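At this stage, I put together one protein's amino acid sequence and its backbone structure tokens, which the following lines show:
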Amino acid sequence: MTAVVDDCAFLKDVLARFPDAVTVSEAVRDASGLAYDMRVIYLNDSAREGQPAPEAAIGALCSELWPQMVLNGAFAACLRVLNGGSSEFGEFWWTESATYRPLGNEYRAVRIGADLVLWVLRHSTDLARRMDAEEARFRAAFDAAPVGVALIDLGGRIVLANESLAAMAGREREALPGRVFASLLSGSDGAEVSDAIAALIRDVDLTYDRELRLDRPGGAQAWARVSLALVRQADGVPSYCVAHALDVTAQKALENALSHQALHDRLTGLPNRALLYDRLAQALVRLARHLGVVGLLFIDIDQFKVVNDGLGHAAGDALLVAAAERLKHATRLGDAVTRFGGDEFVVICDELRSEADAMLVATRVQEAFRAPFEWEGQSFTITLSMGIATATTGGVDAQSLVRDANVAMYRAKEEGRNRCVYFSDSLRAKAVERMQTVMALREAVAREELRLHYQPIVDLVTGKIVGVEALVRWQHPERGLLSPDAFIPIAEETGLIVPIGTWVLQEACRQSQRWHERFPAYASLRMSINLSAGQIIHPGLVGLVAEALSVSSLDSSTVVLEVTESVLMADPEKAGRVLKLLKALGLRLSVDDFGTGYSSLTYLKRFPIDILKVDKSFVSGLGEDSEDSAIVAATVGLAGSLGLQAIAEGVETEDQMGRLVDLSCPRAQGYFFSRPMPADAIAELLERDPSWDTHWRGKVPLYA
């Protein structure tokens, strides 16, 4: 078909002199005969002037030689002519390659024969004028846009970009036209945008909106929310892309900061519990693929409360920060040190060669803590209790491994602290038993499984019962009657001591009032009730005691509340406030196990105490151990000097009772008089009105 042009000298002469640009192209058809592209076979002189290499244009595909024909719709018009039309006329914009400045043009496409199309391009002054006005409005909006905007051709190159985009990319605006838009983006983000543009051309309904990274000169990065939209001609033919880029760098930085805060401890900067579980889960996944061992060290700072309370919370915080630093330096490079909470840390030891390697890490940690810590001129040393659990297969989950290491750590504390214990199946059995105890204990009050036994307190002057101490028992449905040692420590740890203690208060007051009403001779019988540390710090304690007294109609002067020295000194200021409020209700206060704790004369003066109870560990040594005898004598004498009443606990023999009488100790309790008994047995005892011959020879003591 090219011969039509080559052989017609007249036609070539006419076209050569034609003032407008004229091009003749030959159809490129697919197997079905449909034209999908054109190959240039002739350019007149005017058309050659617009080509940097005119001779190279002959034989080239129009879509490759003039991609803007595809962009502005002229390409589609020519194809329509070749695929059945005779001619088309239209207007379009063209862009100068050097300046990317849109120009106004008119075109006419005419089919010659079956496979040739002749199209004439003419610059239109009217069209140019209209386009200049439109361009002015467009550029005003384009340049003033607060977000980055770019026009992108179908090959992915920037045709036009505004100042906001240039600033966001950290580049000069003049350098952007002609540049591939995806090259502004980082790594895989750029490839994703290139694929997105291609997908938008194929799919009419597709949209694109993503947060992407921009590579700035000098290695810096910015974040932008990039949306792409494809502009199509009226007939649906793709024309060009518009990209909008919103700078979200500051927002992303804030999100990253918040994410870091959510996964890291604010005080020490270490990964927190949430990140611990995530990293441990990843380590266990790797373990399932490769041979090795994952070790977990659960670490607790011994007696941290002593430092925190004694030197203040600032000292406690400084200790935690310093401890975190020592842990990081003592562990291996790949180990993950995390803060579990409070004074507890967890170290993940990944890719250990053997379980023994976990102990080597623990040993290095212990060595790192031998050096003293300094705080405002004071030096102190701390020790650690550590539990180790290991996994050798991927079948272990993160929660279970942390639980096992935690159980081992508590075992280390039970064995005396300052040591490391490996987790074992026996420890797991004890942990399961403890968990079952906690679950059953939660229901014990509601199921009425708690019981009170009472131990008589005897006046050594008269030999008569003058009071009882209420002692709680648990009638376990499977394990039988349990003593307080089997469940009270667990109740303290879990907070269950508050509902249990409340029940004890209410039941002891009700029972005491029943006895007062049944036995007029014992109308002044005193009821001693123990208060735990958890009850003392409970904000509603005073109200609970007042309610128990009110509901039972019990005379408050017959109630004695007992607290231990350690409970008083854990928080002396708070304990003092609570005891004064309780004292205001008219009841009496007793210090239990006196001599085993602080034994400070200061707190005897500070707190409104009425009674000192001499601990049974000293009473048991009466007549056999000179030191125990001296301590009992000193305590009884101290109580008398301060106007307090002394009660000796744990009296088991007549000889011990006789020695207490010799020391003028006014009251005592113990197996020698009676074991703790249920209420019915105490009622029978009161019915008999027993009296012990104490052989009291001294004067009757004065006491509250």
Remarks:
- The domain at 145-253 is CATH 3.30.450.20 (Beta-Lactamase).
- Residues 449 and 475 are 5 Å apart (CA to CA).
- The radius of gyration is 46 Å.
- The chain has four domains: 3-127, 145-253, 264-423, 449-688.
